[in-house]
Each structure stands twice: as structure tokens, then as C-alpha cells.
UniProtKB/TrEMBL annotation:
It comes from Thiohalocapsa halophila. It comes from the Bacteria. This is Uncharacterized protein.
């Protein structure tokens, strides 16, 4: 099986990401969980093409050492998450409080 055909595996262990999820109001938290469920069903190729997720490379923020690039994706209608790909894993880092902070602009 090619790498792009592999199912996405989620890493939700980052404390900053967890604080972001747990800090959401109930309807938004439910929407975030639905997005996470959706991600688990997708292959990487599907993630890259999914118009609803709006997977985008963040060029305004330097990625941490050992990471090729940081990405943002829509986690709810009004919030974006930052993450990076590590093999089959999508390692989620944070949920932005507003759109601009995802890209390091606030």
C-alpha cells in the first residue's frame, strides 16, 4: 500500500490541543469531534483533497526541528487546528481561538 493510501492515524496527546478541545463550547466541541471521526476514516490523499477540511501549509510559521512543515485544517466552521504529518500520524498541536492566530499573525 502506498503511503498516500494509508488511513490517517490521529495523535491527540498534545496538552495544548487537548486544552483547546476541552475549552470549546459544547456545540463546537461536538463539531470538532465529528471532524476527528471523519479524519480517521480518510486516507492521506483524501485529506489533501477534501474541500471541507481546507488543508493548508502554514508558511508564516517556522516548523519545529525535525518537522518538515506545519499545516492548518478546519476543525469546526469557525476554528482551525494546527498539525503536522508524521508518517501515518496526524499530530494535532492546537486549536486557534481565531483564524489569524493559526498563521502566526496575532
Amino acid at each position: 500500500m502506498r503511503d498516500q493510501d494509508a488511513k490517517v492515524r490521529l495523535d491527540l496527546n498534545n496538552p495544548v490541543f487537548q486544552d483547546g478541545v476541552f475549552g470549546l463550547e459544547k456545540p463546537e466541541r461536538q463539531a470538532a469531534l465529528e471532524t476527528l471521526k471523519k479524519l480517521r476514516r480518510l486516507t492521506w490523499q483524501q485529506v489533501y483533497r477534501d474541500a471541507g477540511l481546507k488543508w493548508e501549509k502554514i508558511v508564516s510559521v517556522k516548523p519545529p526541528p525535525g518537522t518538515d512543515a506545519l499545516y492548518s485544517l478546519r476543525i469546526t466552521r469557525s476554528r482551525r487546528a494546527t498539525a503536522y504529518r508524521d508518517g501515518a500520524f496526524l499530530r494535532l498541536l492546537s486549536i486557534a481561538t481565531d483564524h489569524d492566530s493559526t498563521y502566526g499573525q496575532k
